[in-house]
Amino acid sequence: MAAKRATKATRTTKGTGGFHVKEDAVPYRPGGKAAASNPGAKATNPPRETPDSRGPSPALRSLPSLPPPPPDGFIPPHGGYEHLLAYQKALVVFDATVYFCDRFLDRRDRTRDQRIQAARSGKQNILEGSEASGTYKEAEIKLTGVAKASQKELLEDYRDFMRNHGIEEWEADHPYALRLRKFNRTPGANYQTFKKGIEHPDPAICANVIAGLIKVTCYLLDRQLRRLERDFLNQGGLRERMTRARLAARARQAPPGWPKGPK
């Protein structure tokens, strides 16, 4: 019986043309010869090759040998808008305007959204101009000017509110205006610094405090524009910096004794 079972492992059949073909009686199983010889064994696939197992590509292996970037770049440091005093004050003005509109203006009032948009524009354009200053000096100057114009528009809205409600605008020598000026000199002043005045029960104090903050913001933006003007006259724009950087790079690459060219 054992011999008979052993003979069933293979069988011979008569193929086309009278040739005898020996067929394997054991069905094909994934896993190769081990699986064929041992039907009870589990099929195992070879480990899949991943990019990490192959190591870095030839292009990446050559990166450490690349020369470092030139020391004389043409894109100056830019950004850092959150450290600008004008932005810090504009942020307080925006938050104060949102509070003021929610408290004193009806939601159906069209000027409500216009005030908030003007306050937002006065803040966001400072941010955008600061980020664009590295490659587009003209955009920085224009956007800073737009921020100042938005603050001026917002100031006029608060003056309209005070005039329509019979509220007197504080003069520069008003005791409350002098006190507000003192708070503006506080290092790192934020919304909490002016919260008592912004959220005061009296709308006259609330409107005058915010108007005073807008005046300070406009003053700071005006100084920032003057500084940008001086920097442009002294250092030029991006094209001039690119030309200077390229000439400096060519001078470093030139062989000894080679004429340096115009400076």
What report would you give on this structure?
The protein is mainly alpha-helical and 263 residues long. It has a domain at 81-248. Helices cover 60% and strands 4% of the residues. The protein contains eleven helices and two strands. The protein has helices spanning 2-7, 33-37, 51-54, 58-61, 85-104, 110-132, 137-164, 175-184, 191-198, 203-235, 238-253; strands spanning 10-14, 20-24. Strands 1-2 form a two-stranded antiparallel ribbon. Strand 1 and strand 2 (20-24) form a beta hairpin. Helix 5 (85-104) packs antiparallel against helix 10. The longest helix has 33 residues, at 203-235. It is elongated. The protein starts with a helix and ends in a 10-residue tail after the last helix.
Task: Please write out the topology.
Blueprint: H1 2-7, E1 10-14, E2 20-24, H2 33-37, H3 51-54, H4 58-61, H5 85-104, H6 110-132, H7 137-164, H8 175-184, H9 191-198, H10 203-235, H11 238-253
Antiparallel strand pairs: 1-2
Helix pairs in contact: 5-6, 5-10, 6-7, 7-10, 8-10
Strand proportion: under 5%
- Oligomeric state of the chains present here: single chain
- How many distinct beta strands? 2
Helix content: 55-70%
Can you summarize the main beta sheet?
2 strands, antiparallel
SSE run: HEEHHHHHHHHHH
What's the helix count? 11
Radius of gyration using CA atoms only: 39 Å
- Spatially, the strands of the biggest sheet line up as 1-2
What is the first-to-last residue Cα distance? 104 Å
Low-confidence stretches: 1-10, 19-36, 56-70
